[in-house]
Amino acid sequence: MFFNLLLPALFGAVWMSIFGGTAIELELYESAELVGVLNEKGPEGVMYALMTHFPGCNILVPVFLFVTFISLVTAADSTTSAMSSLSSKDITLENPEPSKFVKIAWGVMMGLVAWIMMVLGVACFSMVKEPRDLNVRRSGGLGRYVAELSWIVKRNKNYRRFLLTRILRGSEHLALPFYIVFARERLGLPDKAAASFFIVTVLATIPASLAWGRLSDRLGNRLVIIFTTLTSLGAPLFALGLVVAARFGAFEAGEISLAGTSIKTSTMIMWVIAPVFVLIKAAGVGGFIGFSNYVMDIAPDRRRPLYLGLQTSLQGVLIMIVPTLGGAIIDLTRVVLGREAYWVVFAMTAVALTASLMSARRLEEPRVHHARDILRPMPRQA
Of the candidates 229, 242, 233, 183, which has an alpha carbon nearest to the alpha carbon of residue 349? Predict the structure, then answer.
């Protein structure tokens, strides 16, 4: 757990703090014009512009490129090996490596998907225009921003409730790494099923995004937060139901007969665990839409960067800390109970998400509509 979860999270936090803090310091006090570089050359150009302010820039840039290349190759090789193993047969202790053809196929597919998504992202972002009346404040330093954030949190009761809802909603990451582990160790889920779940969740992203976006546009982002939290709550509750079913030996038989048809238990397990991952993906996509747009609705124009910055920073901290906390809880159950009690993190996640749902219901709706205006169909254009 230390090397797989805690250490990478700490490294990421230190990395982002050092480089992000340095960029902010140079932009505020040294007139580095990094914002201009960002607008002209994109985010990749900011990194090189930042390095020009460091001593030994001519040596630092090649070292940076080499380290970036090694990191990319290492991550790509590990990912392709994992996906190839999950989608290959006859993987044994004597022959643990998948074929090179399968690894190359996965590498090409992931590379193409990554390239297409980056091109689409850059193309879409290039069409975004900066508001003409945006007043960028460059004085005061980091201390002033922290003081202003503290003032906002103390003064805005609804924003405090929103932050509490967001923190409690972050508990969904507590059990996130252990659904697939539970399914493999307790239910006997085949290893190759992980690749199928990955494909299912990717396919679920498109309709989920469209549905949540439609709900956000028609009924407001408060309801999106409520419904996505309810969706997220369904994952640990469904997993707890599987825990109870496993206790009663529902998945011990080699075959299960349904309506006169014999179905292998491994196939049945894949079908019963798949809704957990669909709920997680749908809730994650909708949560991003709901929470981000809700902040945009309640934040004053001049303070939107502060509202969004705090919410985004809080989300990043939760993603790094909460899964590590879940691993610590699993380790504690192993010591106390003699085995991993995954139901504990499932139950804790369900309780925290229930609290988040109750808090979300008390959020104010920034879009004040009459009921007939909400239910009225959109007028057709002539």
Answer: 233
In the chain the domains, ranked by start, together with CATH numbers, are: 140-364 (1.20.1250.20)
Alpha helices (H) along 52-187 = 57-86, 100-126, 141-155, 157-169, 172-175, 179-186
> Which string of DSSP letters, residue by residue, matches 283-332?
HHHHHHHHHHHHHHHHS-GGGHHHHHHHHHHHHHHHHHHHHHHHHHHHHH
CA dist 104 and 337 (Å) reads 44
In eight-state DSSP terms, residue 91 is -
Sequence length of the chain is 382
Q: Which letter does DSSP use for residue 5 in this model?
A: I
From 220, 180, 207, select the one nearest 196 (Cα to Cα): 180
How far lies 342's CA from each of 54, 119, 174, 337, in Å? 48, 41, 11, 11
Task: Count other Cβ atoms within 10 Å, centred on residue 80.
Answer: 21
**Tens place of pLDDT per residue across the chain (382 aa):** 555 566 767 777 777 777 777 787 777 767 778 877 877 777 778 888 888 888 888 888 888 888 888 888 887 888 888 778 777 777 666 777 778 888 888 888 888 888 888 888 878 877 777 666 545 555 455 677 778 778 888 888 898 999 999 999 999 999 888 888 888 888 777 766 666 666 777 777 888 888 998 988 888 899 999 999 999 999 999 999 988 888 877 666 556 555 555 566 666 777 777 888 888 888 988 999 999 899 888 888 777 777 877 888 788 788 888 888 888 898 899 888 888 889 999 999 999 999 999 999 999 888 754 333 333 444 454 4
**Alpha-carbon span 103 to 109, nearest angstrom:** 10
What's the rounded Cα separation, in Å, for the pair 126 and 180? 39
Is 213 within 8 Å of 289 (Cβ atoms)? yes
